[in-house]
Amino acid sequence: MTIPSPFMTPERAGFRDNLDRFFADRVRPNIETWEAAGRVPQHIHEDLGALGVFGFGVPEAYGGLGFDDPFLRCDYAERAFGCGASGVAAAVGGRVISIGPMVQFAPEPFKRLILPEIVAGRIGSALAITEPGGGSDVAALSTRADRRGDGWVLNGCKTFITGGMEADWFVVGARTGKPGLAGISLFLVPAGVPGFSRSSIGDKMGWLCSDQATLYFEDCTLPEDALIGPENKGFLAIMGNFNYERLSMTAGCLGMMRLCYASALGWARERRTFGRRLIEHQAIAHKFAEISARIDLTEAYLERICWDISQGRMPVAEISKAKVQATKALEYVASEAMQIFGGAAYLRGNPVERVWREIKVMAIGGGSEEILRDLAVRQMGLAEA
Ligand SMILES: Cc1cc2nc3c(=O)[nH]c(=O)nc-3n(C[C@H](O)[C@H](O)[C@H](O)COP(=O)(O)OP(=O)(O)OC[C@H]3O[C@@H](n4cnc5c(N)ncnc54)[C@H](O)[C@@H]3O)c2cc1C
């Protein structure tokens, strides 16, 4: 957007510059290698940890920044998802989405000893909600945790768990009570517990340098304090945690759209057809007007939401609508950017080709478009009058 943002600060601009340098120098040149390996190297987790990106909302005593800032969270997500392969953001994303419940609910010794290691990127963590039976209907999850003696026994299966192949700790949603949303609790589960195993979900369309795992819990014995947060009230915690995940994914879409715009514009300025550069053909120039409008709208919506959060509110309806708007905008922008590239868009290695393969995970993961529209409508109370 050519209009300066009223929400930009020197601190934000500096943080964004740091991230830009990091992703340009340390990440972008290695993407092909990491995709072939199916993972990013361990030092990337630690380098990002050193930049502070896992420390938002984490007290300093637990290794965090000691403050939260929705704008900075989004600046990170925009840069990470837009770095050339949104799989890089996913590769460290299991950690990002599981830290919140740990800060809120984990026992004090865990927060003092283990959480700083996770926030620093030295050990991994993941959030395990989705099951083979379904991900949208969280209230129907069937993994069970039953009281036995002075602890718990966990049985069930989770799938699509990002970072699950390498994580050392999991935040797991499990049923402790009656059917429905009022019978779910959260558990902190170490990867080393007897009865735990995992396997990779296998070949995927995108996010190639990140892993997703199926997790199996067979009579895993857990201590009493593995239950984190109030018993049978885990559903609310899961829903609360989704807000930042969805906000980050919206910012991620913004970064991916910016990547499409910049790549397609570079091409349109060089490629010549019918004696002129592509950008000089009106039909192509108009595509950039449309693309940049979609980007501007997403940015403006996101910043308004960040401002609202910074005022102490959590605008769930707007977060839900913004994520849907952003994934739809991303689909449009990536399609038009590919059209501008012509046949070159169809080749592996073209940055927009990779974005194209990573649209759907943004539209399905972290709350699908259908589920989020539904949530927005309920939050707005449209059926109540
Ligand atoms: C690459 C990747 C990474 C992921 N990482 C994680 C992770 O780290 N942790 C985790 O817990 N999960 C993770 N997920 C799972 C993700 O959150 C789920 O895929 C998502 O919530 C949708 O669940 P589902 O795939 O089971 O689809 P389903 O719930 O089976 O839904 C199928 C389709 O039906 C639609 N639908 C469902 N119910 C309704 C309805 N009532 N009305 C209208 N439409 C409906 C959905 O929108 C969807 O389009 C990941 C998924 C992917 C693909």
TrEMBL record:
Q: Where is the Acyl-CoA dehydrogenase/oxidase N-terminal domain?
A: 9-121
Ranges for domain Acyl-CoA oxidase/dehydrogenase middle: 126-220
Cofactors required: FAD
Acyl-CoA dehydrogenase/oxidase C-terminal domain ranges (all copies):
232-380
Q: Name one Pfam family in it.
A: Acyl-CoA_dh_N
List keywords of the entry alphabetically.
FAD, Flavoprotein, Oxidoreductase
Q: Which domain of life is it from?
A: Bacteria
Keyword flag Flavoprotein: yes
- InterPro entries given in the database record: Acyl-CoA_dehydrogenase, Acyl-CoA_DH_CS, Acyl-CoA_Oxase/DH_mid-dom, Acyl-CoA_Oxase/DH_mid-dom_sf, AcylCo_DH-like_C, AcylCo_DH/oxidase_C, AcylCoA_DH/ox_N, AcylCoA_DH/ox_N_sf
The record's section on PROSITE patterns has:
ACYL_COA_DH_1 (PS00072)
Give yes or no: UniProt keyword Oxidoreductase.
yes
Similarity remark: Belongs to the acyl-CoA dehydrogenase family.
Protein name (record) = Acyl-CoA dehydrogenase family protein
In its UniProt entry, the species of origin is given as Pseudodonghicola flavimaris
